[in-house]
């Protein structure tokens, strides 16, 4: 019979104790830097000021329609069945303008296009001022869409659309935006043009007391992440209130046992044919501790969560955004 060495068990306990002690020290010595959120939202707040400037000029044009029509450049755009014929490569100063078949008065809508042609130069200025902007646009109750920079609208759009049925319009209307000011649309969406997750800011445009249009500014989440987090030391995620990962570096995403990323790049992953939002949702994780972390941070509004499993990260620290219904989470990996 083999004898049992009495010193093995105490050594084993000692090693476990040291490991647990190291883990506790890693959890306790961390302090979350929420200045990152303040820096992000400071620039996002500037976009709110920018869209107000655009709104003011738009309403000025509408208020002076008669005098503007007398001098309007009727040859600035040519149209084919409601679609402006200019291509993105033709000029970097023109928008894409579409008058959809759903308009009740095509000629009146075309007249409003002439009145608001001056918005092109303001849209261009906005993009030059703020590198994070992907596009600027407006959509109207009489079914006119103007988007800058230009894109191939005939390939992407059907001529029969009701612009007022889309969230980039109705989120800015009086019912959904009773303050009638700048509003960040709570849901992000995956851009069909391949830019990843898109975040939108909208603002109503009022003509004679009635809603006429909704202005929009789109920015990419990747641009936000790249500007403020790529050069930070640490592993970060941005998640929305439903638990969807809308931004993150590979270290943070893979530390939480989510599916492998394509080339370790999240944007490439979400644009792949087999990408599903549910696969990258904290509440849907196969790891119970990740689900518990989501519950603690998103539902219970806790600022930290400590993992117990030795194969998990050590801790997660979080702070909510103020302008957006998002959370910034830093994942502290195990040593």
UniProtKB/TrEMBL annotation:
<keyword id="KW-0175">Coiled coil</keyword>
<feature type="coiled-coil region">
    <location>
        <begin position="37"/>
        <end position="64"/>
    </location>
</feature>
<protein>
    <recommendedName>
        <fullName>Cache domain-containing protein</fullName>
    </recommendedName>
</protein>
């Amino acid at each position: 019979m083999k004898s049992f060495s009495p010193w093995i068990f105490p050594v084993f306990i000692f090693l476990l104790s040291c490991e647990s002690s190291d883990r506790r020290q890693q959890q306790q010595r961390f302090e979350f830097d929420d200045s990152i959120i303040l820096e992000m939202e400071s620039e996002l707040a500037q976009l709110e000021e920018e869209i107000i400037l655009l709104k003011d000029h738009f309403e000025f044009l509408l208020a002076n329609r008669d005098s503007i029509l007398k001098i309007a450049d009727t040859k600035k755009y040519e149209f084919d069945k409601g679609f402006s014929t200019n291509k993105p490569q033709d000029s970097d100063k023109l928008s894409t303008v579409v008058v959809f078949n759903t308009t009740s008065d095509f000629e009146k809508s075309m007249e409003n296009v002439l009145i608001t042609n001056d918005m092109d130069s303001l849209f261009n200025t906005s993009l030059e001022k703020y590198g994070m902007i992907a596009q600027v646009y407006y959509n109207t109750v009489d079914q006119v869409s103007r988007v800058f920079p230009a894109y191939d609208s005939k390939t992407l759009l059907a001529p029969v659309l009701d612009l007022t049925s889309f969230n980039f319009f109705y989120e800015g209307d009086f019912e959904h935006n009773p303050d009638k000011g700048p509003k960040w649309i709570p849901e992000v969406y995956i851009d069909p043009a391949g830019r990843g997750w898109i975040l939108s800011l909208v603002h109503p445009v009022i003509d004679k007391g009635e809603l006429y249009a909704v202005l929009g500014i789109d920015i990419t989440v990747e641009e936000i992440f790249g500007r403020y987090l790529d050069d930070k030391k640490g592993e970060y995620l941005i998640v929305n209130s439903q638990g969807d990962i809308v931004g993150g570096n590979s270290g943070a995403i893979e530390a939480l046992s989510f599916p492998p990323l394509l080339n370790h790049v999240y944007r490439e992953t979400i644009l792949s044919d087999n990408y599903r939002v549910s696969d990258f949702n904290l509440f849907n994780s196969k790891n119970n501790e990740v689900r518990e972390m989501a519950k603690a941070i998103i539902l219970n509004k806790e600022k930290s969560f400590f993992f117990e499993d030795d194969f998990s990260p050590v801790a997660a620290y979080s702070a909510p955004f103020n302008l957006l219904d998002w959370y910034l989470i830093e994942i502290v990996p195990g040593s």
